[in-house]
Amino acid sequence: MSATTEEFETRWEVMRDKYKLESNFWITEMYNQRIHWAKAFLKDIFLAGMSTSGRSESINSFFDDFVNSSTMLNDFLVQYDKAVASRRAAEEDEDFKTMNSRPVLSSIHPIEAKAGECYTRKVFEIFKKEWMEATSNLTHETISKSTEEIKYRVGQLDIDKKYWRIVTFCLSNKIHVTCSCAKYETCGILCKHSLYVMKKRHVDTLPSHYILSRWTLNARYKMGKRSIRLEEMNNGNGVSAYTLWCVRSNFNKVIEQVKDSPSEIENVNNVLIKLLQDQAIRKKPLPVENVSQGHYATSCSKRKVDESLQEKQ
Questions:
Q1: Residue from 33, 43, 40 nearest 11 by CA
Q2: Do the beta carbons of residue 301 and residue 290 sit within 8 Å?
Q3: pTM of the full predicted structure?
Q4: pLDDT tens column, 60-106
């Protein structure tokens, strides 16, 4: 696999000459479209770890347990709903595991600890693999050093140095590290080469600007920095999943805003208790004999529920 565009061009020319493909129309077209598929040309494009065939493979696996080539169209609609419900249930299960378990660290280094605090379970496992290789399987040699930056060649001892990666560490107040493998630029997670250099340079935490919010625990119910109003939601007869998502988003934003103030947290909690009491009243059915007694019966019933709730508290 070519690490740079120059290397790609050289290897392509060697391959073309070796197999005499100069007049092959398909090969020529593929070369003309190289910026869309060759990895050396995609290092500045964020792909979230997906491959070119990933979407097709994902859709196929999504329906594997629900439909097949003999599924009728009317049955497909039913099975599609089941597939979506299954995926949502799996996501909820993963959310529960993430929120109610602690990551298993491979070291006591604060960089890994910070990643364990921020990332979801699945993303942390990817980071952990990179971290373990960075701390146990790599070495380096210094290429150049100046007052502004240091360049290292990082790789494994048992691998030819031509396959090692170039890591640049900037000597400034803000930690800045780049690697020729471009894993962070394409996947959003620091590579083992960058982590190795950060550890060598005694960086004591994972810089926040290298933690993408999309991979974090609190990413699911956030939508920018603004709150979401009900009129922006889907209109319909019932409460849609999108509406619930928006309400959860607003709730999480409130918690984030007030978590540094005990008094504000208490105020929010009091509001929530009042809402819970109101919902308990709303969902408690009225006796049939009291329905015909009008407003007075309704008021008495509500007062009794309030007194019952206060006694329980």
A1: 40
A2: yes
A3: 0.64
A4: 677 777 888 888 888 888 888 888 888 888 888 887 787 778 889 99
